[in-house]
Amino acid sequence: MNYLAEVLLAALLIAGSAGSQTTGQDTGTDPATAALSDVYQSTDGSIVGTVVDADFRFPIAGAKVEVLGTDKSAITGKDGQYRIASLPKGFYQVQASLVPGYNFVTKNNVQVESGKERPLFFELKMASDIPPDFVPVEKQPTPTANPAPVYPESARKDSVEGVVWIKLVVDERGNVDTVSLINLHCTTAGVDVRAGGIDSLAQQRLSERIYKAIADLVSATISAAKKWKFTPAMLNGKPVKVWVTIPFKYKLSSTGGEKALPKTKPLEPKK
């Protein structure tokens, strides 16, 4: 009887060992290693969130969010969202930045817990009062007063005609804040003059007097643009600053500088 008991016990031990080996072969992972891996994975957390413009509330793409003191960081997508994974539990200092144009924001004592996502929202404020090239508004600014520029006598005498493109900021009250020249295309004596310059042959045909006439044309355009008035652009029910581009046309057949309707849609950012 003792002999039979020993045989049965040996058979059971062999079966148990075989079953254990079969399980290991099926998963391809040692049970102890798998358990240890689960422990390590459970200690990792993540930080997720969105970066937006503090004034206009639109998502900011291309902002860098980094966990200071580590090699962990992420870049926001078109929707302004980001995710930083594989962070051991603990407290961190997290910074969001976008250069140029915005001031960086740092948040301290950001707690990350094991196996959890930590929401973290950033609002970046522009480094100046100048709006970005593109602001997604609900209502575009509309001109309410748009005086034409005075055609400079120097430009008339030298038969300078063409178009001067002006870029300006319309503030929250509808007033013109900042004005700058973005392009021009003038003709005189059969020669094209553009903002990008002219070739050497054409340059020989133009005198300093012609260049002065074109400069007077630009000056007259800027002076007129500063006097324009608008209804302000609106975003989330509030007036906001935006850029507006206006082409001013000059023709000698007119008694004054002709103005075209402004392109009130803000400029798209350069790629």
Describe the structure.
This protein has 271 residues and is an alpha+beta fold. The protein has 2 domains: 81 residues, Carboxypeptidase-like, regulatory domain (Immunoglobulin-like, Sandwich), CATH 2.60.40.1120; 118 residues, TolA/TonB C-terminal domain, CATH 3.30.2420. It is built from 5 helices and 17 strands. It has a 5-stranded antiparallel β-sheet with strand order 12-11-10-16-17, with helices on one face. Strands 1, 4, 7 and 8 form a 4-stranded mixed β-sheet that branches. A hairpin with a 5-residue loop joins strand 2 and strand 3. The termini are far apart.
Itemize the secondary structure elements and their pairings.
Layout: H1 2-27, H2 31-42, E1 44-53, E2 64-67, E3 73-75, E4 81-88, E5 90-97, E6 105-112, E7 117-119, E8 122-124, E9 142-145, H3 153-157, E10 161-170, E11 176-188, E12 191-194, H4 200-205, H5 208-225, E13 229-231, E14 233-235, E15 238-240, E16 242-250, E17 258-259
Parallel strand pairs: 1-7, 1-8
Antiparallel strand pairs: 1-4, 2-3, 2-5, 5-6, 9-13, 10-11, 10-16, 11-12, 14-15, 16-17
Descriptive labels:
271 residues; alpha+beta; Immunoglobulin-like; TolA/TonB C-terminal domain; 2 domains; 25% helix; elongated
